[in-house]
Amino acid sequence: MRTLSMVILLAFLLLLSYGAANIHCSTVSHENRTDVHSLLEFKAATNDPTGALRSWNRRVHYCNWEGVICSSMKPGRVAALQLPGQNLSGEITPSFGNLTYLKLLNLSSNGFSGLLPPLNLLHELVLLDLSSNSFQGTIPDSLMNCSNLEGVDLSRNMLEGPIPEEIGSLYNLIALNISRNNLSGIIPPTISNATQLQLLNLQENQLGGSVPGELGKLSNMFSLGFGDNWLSGPVPPSIFNLTGLGVLDGHLNMLRMALPLNICETLPNLRILILGGTMLDGHIPASLGNCTMLQVMDLSNNSLIGEIPSFGKLLSLARLYLESNNLQGVIP
């Protein structure tokens, strides 16, 4: 589930652009020297086999370096660093945390390793995308100091340990993707304090315990994914009352439950329902035939019984998986 909300947020930030694609400064203040020093330390510690950082030299003003965007509000201060998919690798130096006016950081799809860089001084940071790297260790509590964060993508790394309980203190958070790591422990109920969340992706980790009912407080939620973990117990009824929910993916868990009979009355905007391999039992609710926006439905590898209800109203349905159940009767 690689994020509609994250893409929208990134596009929004790029439109802002901070008005600074071509800033030229005749003098460099103390703060600006700090930014230059941090960038040069980053370059010195980074393996760059394809020369993505070849423009990072003193002959080119640093605001025109590849991937660097400076601010028009704070001339000469680095507001964005975007270097996705550049085959860069190495460990990120601690001085990186001195880019204190940074609002957007995207180093996704590279080979960076080691611990996550220190970000506790980056109070202006709005979007953080470090996905598809090889970062290790835990998600640091210091990340919660970045109180303006709206989008965080740490997916496809090797992070471990628990999800910090303080994650809910990021009150402006819209999208959080920490899937495809080695995170363990429980889903902290305190996530529900981030009431602006629209996308939450926790898939393909080693999370245990139950799905907290507090997630039902996230009234803006559109996409909720917690599949391929070690979660047990039913999905709380409160989640089936998130009327704006469009994507629900909890596949490969031990939910042991029957689907609510009125599922499409409470989730009228449902587009993707993936609960394959979750130990579902009971009947397929006939009300699923009224989820007119449904595009993908996967209820395979469960213990569902009875007949397949009519799905004749599901004109948008592109994929339907019902194999490996105990269904009977004719195909409607």
Percent range of helical residues: under 10%
| Number of helices, where a helix is a run of at least 4 consecutive DSSP H or I residues | 3
Secondary-structure arrangement, i.e. CATH architecture of the largest domain:
Alpha-Beta Horseshoe
Proportion of β residues? 15-25%
Low-confidence stretches: 1-5, 11-30
CATH superfamily of the largest domain: Ribonuclease Inhibitor
Q: Could you say which structural class the secondary elements and strand pairing correspond to?
A: mainly beta
Task: Give the mean pLDDT.
Answer: 91
CATH uppermost class of the largest domain: Alpha Beta
Distance between the termini: 31 Å
Strand order in the largest sheet: 1-2-4-6-8-10-12-13-14-15-17-19
Quickly count the domains. 2
* Helix and strand element order: HHEEEEEEEEEEEEEEHEEEEEE
CATH-defined fold name of the largest domain: Leucine-rich repeat, LRR (right-handed beta-alpha superhelix)
* Strand elements, count: 20
Query: What is the CA-based Rg, rounded?
Result: 23 Å
> Biggest β-sheet, characterized?
12 strands, mixed
Tell the overall outline.
elongated
Main location: other
Membrane topology: Single-pass membrane protein
Family: Belongs to the polygalacturonase-inhibiting protein family.
Pfam families: LRR_1, LRRNT_2
